């Protein structure tokens, strides 16, 4: 199974990565298999993509300016946000989004009333991207239901927006409309937000969570909300994370673990029992990427296959029906899936050929297919093969965003 690299096609013999080896630069060429890419990603050796990245609103609800296209009209087909092609990171929350460009600037737009989740110090909705402060040191960003968190290049962690269950990690439940630092540590590495809880991996491979815990989604063996970071167990081999009202994580050995709400089988345990501590999903060791809907889970394996389980009332599992699943089921037979994202009731993925595919609920046209009809199987968005990746989601988004090579 082969995949794509901006400099060419990929094959069995992995070429040498040149330049920085911290995931922040460098270059590579030649041929890579997806499992080789997975190994390098786990080690932090896979360089950032340096292709021109245009920012696109693929579709969805825009009543609060959520699509960032300077109006409040819903869209059911992709529209470019501005003309810049230097965007690097992208995330979507319930009705707001955040992006980081190659200069390290942080930008936000969409719904901002009540909680200040855009982070510009106001509670005014923004229908176009606005810069958050003047810093150029932002590295990654993750949006939640009505809140956002981000990591700087110095390894510090910052959060803002709604804080009803302590999801901002401040030891309180006070909302903030501008970024506030979470503690004083400088070793935060990867972050993904659930609907109202934070999931973060440190540079030492440890996993930390805080926020809402009504279903045990924090993984601490209880259902008590926590307003400051607490480590999940003692392991140091966590590499990939996602969350909705539950949490799913992949270890460096390729095993997958899940915990939290399981009312529709989203934990992949073959039942609907909630778990407040991590439980392994099957026995396989070839899981690569995971993305959670509000009550479901999507994943890609190292062989390029796509899998799903959990809530399926809108066809968001992509299995051609609306039946819930409590164990992983493969979506079709293709082995060309590369990048993955999820919204509240939908899935989105990019194949190795650069085509974009969506499925599930289609409220306000969020699937980008030119209509509002639900799809229970992956359906291609247009005919272009220049898509790079979809936005990082939080299992709550009602918009679909992505990067495209113009």
Task: Please characterize this protein's 3D structure.
The protein has 406 residues and is mainly beta. The chain has 2 domains: 1-48, no CATH class; 51-404, Regulator of chromosome condensation 1/beta-lactamase-inhibitor protein II (Methylamine Dehydrogenase, Chain H, 7 Propeller). Helix content is 2%, strand content 40%. It has one helix spanning 34-42; strands spanning 4-5, 8-9, 54-60, 79-80, 87-92, 96-101, 106-110, 126-131, 138-143, 147-152, 157-161, 176-181, 188-193, 197-202, 207-211, 226-231, 238-243, 246-251, 256-260, 275-280, 287-292, 296-301, 306-310, 325-330, 337-342, 346-351, 356-360, 375-380, 387-390, 399-404. The protein has a 4-stranded antiparallel β-sheet, with no helix packed on it. A hairpin with a 3-residue loop joins β5 (87-92) and β6. The protein starts with a strand and ends with a strand. 57% of the residues are buried. The model is unreliable at 1-13 and 17-27 (pLDDT under 50).
């Amino acid at each position: 199974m082969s995949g794509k690299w901006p400099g060419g096609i990929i094959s069995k013999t992995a070429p040498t990565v040149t330049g920085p080896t911290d995931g922040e630069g460098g270059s590579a060429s030649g041929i890579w298999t997806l499992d080789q890419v997975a190994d390098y990603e786990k080690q932090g050796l896979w360089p950032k993509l340096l292709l021109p990245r245009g920012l696109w609103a693929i579709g969805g609800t825009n009543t609060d300016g959520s699509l960032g296209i300077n109006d409040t009209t819903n869209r059911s087909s992709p529209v470019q946000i501005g003309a810049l092609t230097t965007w690097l990171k992208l995330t979507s929350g319930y009705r707001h989004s955040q992006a980081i460009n190659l200069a390290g600037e942080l930008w936000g737009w969409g719904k901002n009333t009540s909680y200040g989740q855009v982070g510009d110090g106001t509670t005014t909705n923004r229908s176009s991207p606005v810069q958050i402060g003047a810093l150029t040191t932002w590295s990654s960003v993750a949006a939640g239901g009505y809140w956002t968190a981000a990591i700087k290049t110095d390894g510090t962690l910052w959060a803002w927006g709604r804080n009803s269950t302590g999801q901002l990690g401040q030891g309180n439940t006070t909302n903030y409309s501008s970024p506030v630092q979470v503690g004083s540590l400088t070793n935060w590495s990867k972050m993904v937000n659930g609907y109202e809880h934070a999931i973060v991996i440190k540079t030492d491979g440890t996993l930390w969570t805080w926020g809402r815990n009504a279903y045990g989604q924090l993984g601490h063996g209880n259902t008590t909300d926590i307003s400051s970071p607490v480590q999940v167990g003692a392991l140091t081999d966590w590499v990939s994370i996602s969350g909705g009202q539950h949490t799913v994580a992949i270890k460096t050995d390729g095993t997958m673990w899940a915990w939290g709400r399981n009312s529709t089988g989203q934990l992949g345990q073959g039942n609907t029992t909630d778990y407040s501590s991590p439980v392994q999903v099957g026995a396989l060791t070839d899981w690569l990427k995971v993305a959670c809907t509000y009550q479901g889970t999507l994943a890609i394996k190292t062989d390029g296959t796509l899998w799903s389980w959990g809530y399926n009332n809108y066809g968001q599992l992509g299995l051609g029906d609306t039946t819930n699943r409590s164990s992983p089921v493969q979506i079709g037979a293709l082995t060309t899936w590369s990048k993955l994202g999820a919204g509240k009731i939908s899935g989105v993925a990019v194949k190795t050929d650069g085509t974009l595919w969506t499925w599930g609920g289609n409220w306000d046209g969020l699937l980008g297919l030119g209509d509002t009809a639900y799809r229970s199987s992956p359906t291609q968005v247009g005919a272009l093969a220049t898509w790079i990746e979809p936005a990082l989601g939080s299992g709550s988004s009602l918009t679909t965003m992505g990067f495209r090579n113009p």
